[in-house]
Structures are given as structure tokens and as C-alpha cells.
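re the bet — no i am not wrong, look at it urself. input seq straight from the record:
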Amino acid sequence: MKHVDIEAEVPGLLTIGENAYRRIRGDILFGHLKPNQKLKLDRLRDHYGASVSTLREILNRLSSEGLVVAEGQRGFEVAPVSVENLREIAALRLLLEVHALEQSFAVGDVEWEGRVVSAHHKLSSMERRMQEGDRSQTEVWKRYDWEFHQALISACGSSVLMETHAAIFDKYLRYQMIALSFRGDIAANEHRTLLDCALKRDARTARATLELHVKGGVEHALATGTIR
């Protein structure tokens, strides 16, 4: 899967270019590289340890993913954010995830159940820490959030659907990280309901819960005032 920014990296097994791509992509998604920030090749070279020519290839690749804007002779900058774009991304995420979730509920086996339970255990543990005020590992929290939602749809039978959902989820995640949006008990309870629905194969309740989950996440992020 190409959306490896929130997957574990294996040191020594990546090329310099691939490692730089993952790091830059992750820094955009997690808000370390800010929206509209100019991406100066000399600075990137020093920070990420890749040549200027390799960095151009990486930034063009990220441009094709909608995370970077190529400005012709003026270079590159991090893609901007907007309320309209967040709503569009959320709507597409919901469309894809509901379809994939229903497919998974219909055919998921005990191995699928195990993946869902395991992913939820990690996510709920991190959510408890955040509810107690520990916000030192927000990137781990979002990694576990990503893993749980991917586990829910992992029996859908379509690698294309999984990859497309991952790409959209990443963009949705970027907005959450920019807004530092955590809904506490509300989101944790919705995740628990999704787990219960998966084990009971209750696709109808899962769909309604997922709609509340995504739409609630959008409104909570917008309420912070950091996205305009």
C-alpha cells in the first residue's frame, strides 16, 4: 500500500528517496509542514537528506496526491485547506467507507473479527490516555484510528477500494491534526459502537454511527476556528 506515512517503517529497507517521501508526506499530514508553506528545496535537502532532483520527484508525486501544489517556476508549497474541501473529503470518505464496511460485514470471517478487535483495543487504550489529558502522542492516536477504520473494511474484497479509502482518510486526518480535533467520550463511544456492530454484523446501525462519527468530526474540527 502506498499510503505508508502511518504504517511502521523498517529502517534500512527503504531507498533514500522513498524514506524522504514518507517523511515529507507524514509531516504534511500531521501538520509539521503547514498549509501554504513554501517548500524550499535547499532546506528540504538539508532536513530530509535527499538530493534536489529527488525532492522534485517527491514533490511532484505529492502534488498528484493533492498534498502539494506545484507553482511552476515559483516552486512548491503545501496544499491549502478550506472548509469546503474538508466537507468534500468527509463526504467522499463516508461514501467509500460505508460501502466497504457493508461488504466486510457481509463476508468477514473470524480472522477479520480478530483484526477489528485488536485494532480497537489499541485505539481505545490511546483514547483513554488522551481523555486523561495526555496529548503527547497524538500521531500514535491517529495511527491507531486509521488502523481501526481500515480493519473494519479489510474484508471488503477490493484492494482498489482499500487504497482509495486510505488516500481519502489521510486527507481527512490532515484536517484533524491541523485542528487538533479530539472529541473525547463521544468519539470513543462511537468507536465502541462500531466494534459491537462489526461483531453482531449490524450494518444498519454501523452506517448510522459512522455518519454521526464523520460529520461530528467535521463540525468539531471547524469549531476550533483553525480552518477557514
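see?? The longest helix spans residues 83-107. told u. also The mean pLDDT is 91. so pay up
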